[in-house]
Amino acid sequence: MSPTATEVIQGIMRARAAQKEETHVHEDPDSGEDDCSDEDAVMDESRGPLEESGCTHTEESEEEVDDSVAEDMARFEETFKGISRRFRLINRIGEGTFSTVYKAEDLNYHHYQNEWDVDEKSNMKWSSPPTKRQAAQKKHKARFVAIKKIYVTSSPIRILNELELLHDLRDSESVCPLITAFRHQDQVIAVLPYFQHRDFREYFREMTISDIRLYFQSLTTALRSVHEQGILHRDIKPTNFLYEPLHARGVLVDFGLAEREETDWHQCACGYDPQDRRARIENSVHSNSFAAATNAVPSYPKVDNRPSRRANRAGTRGFRAPEVLLKCTQQTTAIDMWSAGVILLTFLSQRFPFFHSADDIDALLELTNIFGKKRMRETSLLHGQVFETNIPSYSENGHGFEKIILWCTNRSGRDSSGRRVASLSPEEQEAVEFMERCLECDPARRITAEEALKHPFVASAV
Ligand SMILES: Nc1ncnc2c1ncn2[C@@H]1O[C@H](COP(=O)(O)OP(=O)(O)O)[C@@H](O)[C@H]1O
Ligand SMILES: [Mg+2]
Ligand SMILES: [Zn+2]
What we know:
Layout: H1 5-18, E1 46-47, H2 67-79, H3 83-86, E2 87-95, E3 99-106, H4 118-126, H5 132-140, E4 144-150, H6 156-168, E5 180-184, E6 187-193, H7 200-203, H8 209-228, E7 231-232, E8 241-244, E9 249-252, E10 259-260, H9 274-282, H10 285-292, E11 315-316, H11 322-325, H12 334-349, H13 360-382, H14 401-408, H15 426-438, H16 449-454, H17 456-459
Parallel strand pairs: 1-11
Antiparallel strand pairs: 2-3, 3-4, 4-6, 5-6, 7-10, 8-9
Helix pairs in contact: 1-6, 8-12, 12-15
InterPro entries: Kinase-like_dom_sf, Prot_kinase_dom, Ser/Thr_kinase_AS
Keywords: ATP-binding, Kinase, Nucleotide-binding, Serine/threonine-protein kinase, Transferase
GO biological process, one term: mitotic DNA damage checkpoint signaling
């Protein structure tokens, strides 16, 4: 029998309570033993690129709360017993597919050890010991947290997974640590340090190449620490990387779709050595039917008895790597590097979202438009899939990124002899070179986070 939400969360709380020196997780003493339906682990959900509102409120605007938000917060305080004794809700700061996030003041900050507080740590490192008055003032300084209210419709397994991975990543650089978690009946909240950041849509057009280098230094640092632990984030995109351009500092959030590498792996053709793979392709149903077709048009078996292929395809449309779209059954941390490449493409093209597809097929066609039919055929075969399209406008070899970026940034004009007037600056070319390493269709050849930090585009960030 699969566990209910209550059992799973209680399980985490007991396990965590046992690990004293680690993150504290508090169990709500008033909680009942309510059941919550267990849903299947979602294999194929795809978030829309614009579904999340990643808005950030500045300190000045924080008290201006919309009536509807105030009502929502009041309801939350009423239904989640005891929360107002611990936190003062300030505003709603994010609404995603699986949660609502609130900014709140931690009323009991000084009663706990706060190893997670990076600001406090860096202050301690740099400043001289406080005077008595400063110490008293510090005590009264408001400490903010982000309260992530996970929707009750989320499966218990998923909630457990998110909290567990956050716990495992507690010492990872540039990853938002979990302070604690609470449950009241079927409602679970995760408490995280509040990170001041700006909405990506506000700043992505203003970033110079030097700024973008710093952004990627911060993002790849976070990815390296996640990947080092053998964890795939699965949903790398701007709203999940909270970045403050002013301080060139970012933290990775949202491990709602993350998983450990090799979870649910089945042999995929990409795991065979190239010779073996070629032999298998030659003997495949597709090749045989193609060879048998007189007019060289492939045919399809009328009754296809092969089991349908299942693979985790969770992520956000437009940021998913080709192997995710092609249902590769041995996905690796390389999928996150692809998504990082899409973020870079957004900066360089100044288009957000860059990809905007209705479904997976559409998403594959968007990639075909850029990479060309030849590369898509090769990439598909790599995972034992056959790619075919009869859309005549797609070229065999696709388009280079330089051309795409010039076109997107209205620099594609030509002189009277047909020569392109503009070209990318040397700095932009270096960025494109790095992006091509992230947007490598073959995951085995894609740059890793570790290598990315040594790439001249990222390594020279100052
Ligand atoms: N620690 C935090 N500090 C500040 N804002 C946060 C924090 N965590 C989340 N947010 C805001 O809430 C939004 C949604 O949070 P996220 O964890 O991505 O939830 P979801 O799984 O619903 O996407 C983020 O895009 C961000 O704007
Ligand atoms: Mg999110
Ligand atoms: Zn594969």
